Description:
Layout: H1 2-14, H2 17-41, H3 44-57, H4 78-86, H5 98-104, H6 116-123, H7 128-153, H8 156-168, H9 178-197, H10 205-222, H11 230-246, H12 251-285, H13 289-302, H14 311-323, H15 328-348, H16 359-365, H17 367-374, H18 376-381, H19 383-386, H20 392-404, H21 407-423
Amino acid sequence: MNTVKRNRNILYWMRKPWLKFPLITIGVILVFFITMTVAYSLPNERIEINTQSSLESIESASDWPNVFYSGEGAILDLYTDRVMLNMNFVQNQDNYNVVQQAMDNNSYAQYWHGYQIFLRPLLEIFTYSQIKYLLMFVIFILFALCIILLKEKLNVGIALLFAAVTIAGYIILAPMCLQYSSVFIIMMGAIIAICKLYRPGEKAILKWAYTFLIIGMVTNFLDLLTFPIITLGMPLIVLFLLNLKYNSNYMLKRNIIALFVNSCTWFIGYAFTWIAKWILASIILHRNVIQEAILRIFFRTGGNEQYPVDRSIMFHDNFNTYFGTLGNKFWIILAIILITFLILYIFFKKPVKTLTATIPFLVVMVYPVIWMLVLSNHSQVHVFFVYRILMILPFAFFSAVIYLIDWIKLKEKINKRKVTKSIL
């Protein structure tokens, strides 16, 4: 009886929301640790053969080739892809056991390098080129699913907007570069999950808090600090739109709560996953990885004498890379789009009170700017991939604009004119 009562007490406390967060966090970290150890337990012989073949296939390519078009937006990061591949020539095999190898990552221990749980098994069978070929299917199937679900759950305007901002972020390059693929996959996977899990009328604050906690953790695990904030900003905007469509009575309140809670849990998940790696690596490797990581953070935020930070140049270069590919023509196109939406808003606007519902969208628009301000050196040195975080800005702004227009009224007006014409 005492055992049964004790088990019931344990189950009771496990259902407490405040206890679920640390349990989920520790559980996910444990999964990361185990999967990395398993990945490094695989025999190295076949992996090293395919890795060598893969490196030879891109030997003649530059570290940062411009694939097509002009400007920095279409640059691949083959330098980091080579680093990711070289991780599979495991150093210190004689001195380190499998767990230490998984934590050391060839002395690059500040990151989890979680992509290795996929890359190492794939390199048992495939080469780098073949893996990128498979990635093409994964990424564009996810892209298509996002567009289909956004059209189905929201409207065709949001679906087209999502397609436009991600295409402008050169999603077409994602299968060509391992470095870029992880964040795009996580972002689209998160949007698909939110669309599928959403239940109209459900008060699911904790459900989404847990979801964004895990999204932040998975992002840090797989990514090498590319443009990770899109895995928060883009899914969060989709959640706002779903709340506005299906829970009109909670327009501002629900989205303010979603903004604050989910942003916090994403950042907590992202930061804790990073800190957990430093702590685990320091303990397992008997070296101060925490200090190494902190020194790296100071460099990425403030730069040094060799890479001084100029925030005005950093902002200009990032904005110009995302928005400036078409030159002055872009501003003409943008002006036409804005005027069109303004006319539609004047004649088919929703009640004035709906304006307040757009406040969370405007806050999320600032997220890329805050990210670049904090990680100024990183955003300046790596403009050619960091600029993609700016896709959040037009997605948030135009999502708010699309929401403010009464499309039902517009459709009724069009149908009325069609009926009038047919009578005449």
